[in-house]
């Protein structure tokens, strides 16, 4: 291989790596944004019914429909990767000022204590 070809290949590899790093950072920033509260100043209480046997995806869609999370996909992903006790079925009182991690914690709490 000539030096010229080698330099071109190195440039292509570096460009691809830079693009991948930028995409990774962008995705990371989006996830951080999506985990934040929808309305940090909201005092409104929203009653949410989680049916027995609901999947993580269904819970994310329910929460997105009630405008409690920014992204049902990110909520679903967060539920799957932060399984401590699993989501409990029942009615929950939530606020749009709660972050996705706060909502997930509430949904995973034991219903006997409420």
From TrEMBL:
Pfam families referenced in this protein's UniProt entry, alphabetically: YceG
Native organism: Limosilactobacillus avistercoris
Transmembrane in keyword set: yes
Keyword presence, Lipid biosynthesis: no
UniProt keyword terms in alphabetical order: Cell membrane, Cell wall biogenesis/degradation, Lyase, Membrane, Transmembrane, Transmembrane helix
Name of the featured protein: Endolytic transglycosylase MltG
PANTHER family on file: ENDOLYTIC MUREIN TRANSGLYCOSYLASE
Transmembrane segments: 12-31
Taxonomy, superkingdom: Bacteria
């Amino acid at each position: 291989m000539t030096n010229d070809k080698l330099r071109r290949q190195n440039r292509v590899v570096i460009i691809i790596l830079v693009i991948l790093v930028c995409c990774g950072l962008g995705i990371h920033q989006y996830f951080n944004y999506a985990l934040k509260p929808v309305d940090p100043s909201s005092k409104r209480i929203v009653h949410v019914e989680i049916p027995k046997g609901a999947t993580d995806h269904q819970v994310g869609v329910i929460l997105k429909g009630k405008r409690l999370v920014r992204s049902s996909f990110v909520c679903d992903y967060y539920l799957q990767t932060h399984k401590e006790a699993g989501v409990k079925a029942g009615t929950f009182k939530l606020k749009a000022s709660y972050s996705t991690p706060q909502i997930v914690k509430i949904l995973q709490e034991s219903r006997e204590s409420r």
